[in-house]
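Why run this: before we spend reagent on co-expression, it is cheaper to look at a predicted model of the complex and decide which construct boundaries make sense. The entries below are exactly what would go into the expression plan.
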Amino acid sequence: MTHTVHGQKSLLARVRRIKGQADALERLIEAGQDLDCGKVLQQIAAIRGAVAGLMAEVLEGHLREHVAAENLTTEQRHEEIEEVVAVLRTYLK
Amino acid sequence: MTHTVHGQKSLLARVRRIKGQADALERLIEAGQDLDCGKVLQQIAAIRGAVAGLMAEVLEGHLREHVAAENLTTEQRHEEIEEVVAVLRTYLK
Amino acid sequence: MTHTVHGQKSLLARVRRIKGQADALERLIEAGQDLDCGKVLQQIAAIRGAVAGLMAEVLEGHLREHVAAENLTTEQRHEEIEEVVAVLRTYLK
Amino acid sequence: MTHTVHGQKSLLARVRRIKGQADALERLIEAGQDLDCGKVLQQIAAIRGAVAGLMAEVLEGHLREHVAAENLTTEQRHEEIEEVVAVLRTYLK
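The model came back. Tokens follow.
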């Protein structure tokens, strides 16, 4: 299934932001003895939020562009749906 | 969109279990001064898990029976998908 | 550990609201053939949000009133904390 | 508040694993036209799980080593607790 170039740019920007946040978290933890738990907790929560935003964008794009695509056989459509179900199960525990 | 009778029975059983859990939680909290926080926290976590299970069953059924239904127009399919997207957004915050 | 009467009233109001939401969900599902998936999904998401709000209120009260209580032995304080850890693990999967 | 050296090593290992997962995700998305949605969704779900594990380890350590520390004034203990409450609110929405 192909994705639009615009979609790709937006996803890459989100992933690179997460990588930057993880770098900053690594430096916070490397502070060792002077580790500030409050800041570490906030940084992890920020990464969690960024990952949730990335998941939402990919899932919505997958549902609208692939699951709803007109030229699919019923079998193909069910395959696309099972990819969504597999991810939903990681959230709905 | 119609649901199978089997699906309905399973969903009703889940909802009634949640109602029973909420009744038990109410009684725990009514204990007032002797309220056991540990038990209350566990009971709320149990209800949360039951609600997640219910959501998973309805979402999966909706995706497989409605979104993937063969006799839909593209517009109808997008409408069904937007119902999924609306729920996903409550989880992906 | 004792809870304030005010806290108890607020918690009971939240639980009763969840019970009311579950009743409404039961009626939606009992509609059988004419079951409206969109409304059912929204109602479950609303219950999930109400349960999250209830959990937040109990957890915060437990942390502030019990875990932070001045007259605890270290052992008692660790017991109170382990109740929080047990609940956190149901969320942090 | 100081953290044990052992704790620091474990946290750094987790963060570096997340960075590696984010690198792999970036390469998946850079595939552009041949982007495999299923693999991207799985990879994001894996990162989400790793971030949850990291959050659990830091929160539990903070609760047991800082919130429960014996030599705290009541005011200091409440400050440590408010850091936990701030993070819980990002989860309990």
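The radius of gyration of chain A is 18 Å. Chain A has a mean pLDDT of 90. Bring this page to Monday's planning discussion.
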